[in-house]
Amino acid sequence: MVDHVQSLARGLAVIRAFSATAPELTLSEVARATDLSRAAARRFLLTLADLGYVRSDGRLFSLTPRVLELGYAYLSSLSLPEVADPHLERLAAEVRESASVAVLDGEDVVYVARVATARIMRVTINIGTRFPAYCTSMGRVLLAALSPERLDGYLGSAELRGLTSRTITQPAALRAELDRVRARGWAMVDQELEEGLRSIAVPIRDRSGQAVAAVNVSTHASRMTSQQVRRDLLPPLLATAAKIEADLATLSVART
Fold first, then answer.
1. What does the pLDDT look like over 6-65, one tens digit per residue?
2. Which of 18, 45, 211, 214 has the most other CB atoms within 10 Å of its CB?
3. Comparing C-alpha atoms, which of 89, 82, 79, 80 is closest to residue 236?
């Protein structure tokens, strides 16, 4: 592309090389993660350090809190988290399980709001955490809402890796499951993202009926069976989604 600025793309790739599982990286590790030469990686890291986005102890590099500024404009303009938060708090208190809201971004779901009652996954989930859409309850709700053309594109390009022995990894099987999700209006994922994790999700729709996000409740398999999840968690989850939708509609009217 003529308008593609390669240096900007590479600089952003350096920032994305850091993660919750790799908060500190050496120069060689950054170069390897970004497919850059050591010299190029060093230039980008030193530039980011000069701008205040990266710090170093001489050997290890890490991000600074200033990187949050890069996402602030998006988050500050996004009404969904502030609308959803009080409803998630009430839902989590009612069912005594963690509740979250996520949106679809490419092939991933991205968490934009969350109330955690207990840590039930090996990884810590924060605002901005991403998971593959195909093996998450919120992801399946949002994939099921895609147009046929977009869903075909997703199924043709997504890498369906088996994260557990239960993960659906065949495109045809995933399409069939998404058909079921679309028909019933909710998705349950039973230990496909991580062993021991069960979650159930429903869509959050805008005034036109388009699914713009999803809300879920997750629990550990030792606490609730699949039948109990559907019986005890789905009704309050649907009620919460309806309340969020009502608030979003009111906000939309107020802004017009």
1. 899 999 999 999 988 899 999 999 999 999 999 999 999 999 999 999 999 999 999 998
2. 214
3. 89
| CA–CA distance, 187 with 216 (Å, rounded to integer) | 9
Distance CA 253, CA 246 (A): 11
Task: Residue count of the chain, please give it.
Answer: 256
CATH among 3.40.50.720, 3.30.450.40, 3.65.10.10, 3.90.79.10 for 78-255: 3.30.450.40
